[in-house]
Write a structure and sequence with these properties.
The protein has six helices and three strands; from the N terminus they run ααβααββαα. It is mainly alpha-helical and about 170 residues long.
């Protein structure tokens, strides 16, 4: 006979908690959508593609294991494959095989990808400033940084060898 143990009761959010949660979701989704629209209109890049280019540009040798990149972006193996496929097609990223494991691969930022990132960065930074940073005081930014540090979720893939890379 199946165990019919009741699931633990989770307390509902009170009205203030629910309002704060909804405000966070609305603001985040709206801000990311606006930044995405601006990048698409000016440079033909999605926010997701821009993030890949940024992460690779900041990585040693402009290269990162696909599994590590997926972890940083919180994408599934199929999600990172689709994202990288488009960037490879555009000539912004190349795939390189891992020398120690034929199953693994690296995403490598090309010179064309770096150039596109350098073109798009001012648009992105202007949008971040206009729609977010410049609307807050220094004190509000400090407080927000403290708050976000309390809820930061660190589930990025651990660094390691090429083993099991997509």
């Amino acid at each position: 006979m199946a165990d019919r143990t009741a699931a633990p009761v989770v307390p509902w959010l009170d009205p203030q908690q629910a309002a704060v949660w909804r405000a966070l979701m609305d603001t985040t989704i709206g801000l990311l959508g606006t930044l995405d629209n601006e990048l698409q209109a000016a440079h033909g890049l999605s926010m997701g593609d821009y993030e890949v280019l940024v992460i690779l540009s900041e990585s040693p040798e402009r290269s990162l294991r696909m599994t590590d990149l997926a972890g940083r972006l919180r994408l599934s193996p199929s999600g990172i494959t689709r994202r990288i496929d488009g960037l490879v097609r555009d000539g912004f990223v190349e795939r390189h095989r891992c020398p120690t494991d034929r199953r693994g691969s690296y995403a490598v930022l090309t010179d064309a990808g770096l150039a596109r990132l350098e073109e798009a960065a001012p648009t992105h930074v202007r949008g971040v400033r206009t729609h977010f940073i410049d609307r807050l005081s220094e004190r509000q930014l400090e407080n927000l940084a403290d708050v976000l540090a309390q809820v930061e979720i660190d589930d990025a893939a651990a660094a390691g060898s090429c083993d099991n890379a997509p």
